[in-house]
Amino acid sequence: MEPRFHLAESKRAGRWLKEHFDDPYVKGSRESGCCSRASFMLLEIDFKDTLINPGLKSSISMPP
């Protein structure tokens, strides 16, 4: 059976995974319990600039 990925592709994938898990937004989203990196980034932006008003309905799932 042949390997599913070529060696170069698996190195690239491994490098991407390392960069992904070293990303501060990915780490922050895991620590705070956010569903995704994007929702954590929105919370960070809102904390700095208060873009989202309380009670505003959103399609993004954020922790309470």
UniProtKB/TrEMBL annotation:
It comes from the Bacteria. This is Uncharacterized protein. The lineage of its organism: Bacteria, Pseudomonadati, Pseudomonadota, Gammaproteobacteria, Oceanospirillales.
